[in-house]
Design brief:
The chain is an alpha+beta fold. It has a single domain, classed as Peptide methionine sulfoxide reductase (Metal Binding Protein, Guanine Nucleotide Exchange Factor, Chain A, Beta Complex), CATH 2.170.150. A 6-stranded antiparallel beta sheet has the order 3-4-8-7-6-5. The chain starts with a helix and ends in an 8-residue tail after the last strand. Bound molecules: zinc ion (ZN).
Length: about 170
Amino acid sequence: MKTLIPIFILLHLFNASVMAQKDIRSTKLKEQHFTPKVVMPADTWKAKLTPLQYEVTRNKGTEYPGTGQYYNFYEKGNYYCSNCNALLFNSESKFKSGCGWPSFNDVASMQSINVITDKSHGMVRTEITCANCEAHLGHVFEDGPPPTGLRYCINSASLKFIPDSKQQGKP
Ligand SMILES: [Zn+2]
């Protein structure tokens, strides 16, 4: 998965330069970190998750652009953490960004994510992880649509969608 990083970065840079021309208010996220409630050894996560989920969420990997199951997906419902089932996003904040990954302009609650400055790969980016279990979710960019001006660029492998029609049986 590490070999995918250059493509990932290039696409983001392209997208950011196009979006920057629009006049959109941007809200910078501040760093925050919660004590995780779900903590398990790597082997336990490995047994519980698919190889792709494990690579993305536990090794901070990135799925191929345009391949995630929730990329071109706009059903109404909620998105939960694929590792611990914590509520992360809802479909009202999902938008078509064209960047290759599911994109949201807001989170279900600011209490549900950690915000971390990520200086890997020679760039400074804002990483977000699940506040409940520290699963890597994706990165946040300041070129999203109103009202937040943010684009939460999230791996499908980090998410589990439950449609509104099935909210009774939460994961
Ligand atoms: Zn989680």
